[in-house]
Amino acid sequence: MPPKFGTSGLRGLVTDLTEALVKAHVSAFIASCPVGRGLYVAQDRRASSAMIAGWVEQAAQSAGLPVNACGAVPTPSLALASMTDGCGAVMVTGSHIPDDRNGLKFYTPAGEITKAHEAAILTALRDGTDPAQTAHDGVGARVIRNVTAGAAYKARYLDAFGADCLSGLRIGVYAHSAVGRDLMHDILAALGAQVVDLGRSDTFIPVDTEAVDAETRGLLQQWAATQRLDAIVSTDGDGDRPLMTDATGQVIPGDVLGQITAAAVGAEIVVTPVSSNTGVEASGQFARIIRTRIGSPFVIAAMEAAGGRVVGYEANGGFLLGFAAQGPAGPLAPLMTRDALLPLIAPLVRARGRGIGMAALVADEPPRFTASDRLQEVPSDVGQALVARLDMDASARAAFLGPFGTERSIDRTDGLRITLADGRIVHLRPSGNAPELRFYAEAESQPAADALLRRGLDALAQALRG
């Protein structure tokens, strides 16, 4: 499948992300979207990312834009730096997908590109762009090696939460190949925690925080048992999606972290995709809940329309702060892009303040539990055809639901989300830019959600076989 835009920017196989294709997309972005005073560029730790970042920088220079080359820093760190400086940005990353794939995330000075910006980029690509015709007069084409993006991201949390907010806690950092692993270590230590480095890798490991595999869960539980940890934290490859366990190594779902963080920062309005669990409604803590399609552009659009004390989060845990909040030590400015650190720090601070562990904090949330995973190497068109058939054919849908129960209602906001008669939920969704078919399950307990997920993946595999 050729590179294409999905919920997290442009993605494709590295072999398809040619120099010409990358430079064409960057030139189209510069020609069709606001980029302000220049372009910030950063990359994750994939084998191909430094090379692709070089192509991005060259395309910006050809358009006459000054470049801030930030190197290997997390996506939210890049976004914070570029937005503060009134510049656009490009992050070279494939997030959680394997190393043979990569991608580009685009930012205007206001934050992540919108779907309207995406359409403008595609139009510019179709019409063709000449960098000489889109040059930004008088700003030059110099490249600056930026070394402050990480420090500003660290200061954001130290200023808001204070130097002792995590004192007394022993926290493991699953470093793997996450681009922000060292920065996360430094930030947690600066906030007072004793930090233990775990599982560092020199080769890229694709960590999906929304579908943590059995091997990774086993490692997390082993480390928790042997290292006497209060929690283990990590992120996906580019640092915009959090991963956290309790003291036993049990993974805490990202949407649960999201609803805890929303309450901790004093939000009144919560925007979250339809795939997030329904505990946020059941909690009764928020004046308004807005459900969207899956993907941060949809969350951001709804947040901007809502205004006020609004936050957004996704089932993968990425958290967006849409208003000026107040931390224990100082103000916390808005950051309208997915962030992994806030939904790690805020719950840890809340649990510590109440004198309880993360397991007890999670137990206080409404008893709605989720599990999700995906079948890989399923071409998008194949997955889309299966979901469309189940959507349109009631008898086929009833046969598919046989192992689960009977349907009560259907939500077609994004994919096919079916609430069963007993209140459990099954949700099928083909990926838009990766060969994956996802299955989401929600139930009244974690074992029930896990069992529903296992049956769902088996049923999907059988349906795909025909």
Shape descriptor: globular
Work out the radius of gyration.
22 Å
**Alpha plus pi helix count:** 15
Major sheet description = 8 strands, mixed
Distance between the termini: 22 Å
Low-confidence stretches: 131-135
Using DSSP, what is the number of strands? 25
Class by helix and strand content? alpha/beta
Beta-strand content bin: 25-35%
> Helix coverage percent of residues?
25-40%
Mean pLDDT: 93
What does this molecule look like?
The chain has 466 residues and is α/β, with parallel strands linked by helices. It contains 15 helices and 25 strands. The strands form 5 sheets. Strands 1, 2, 3, 4, 5, 6, 7 and 8 form an 8-stranded mixed β-sheet that branches. The longest helix is centred in the C-terminal third of the chain and has 20 residues, at 446-465. Mean pLDDT is 93; it is low at 131-135.
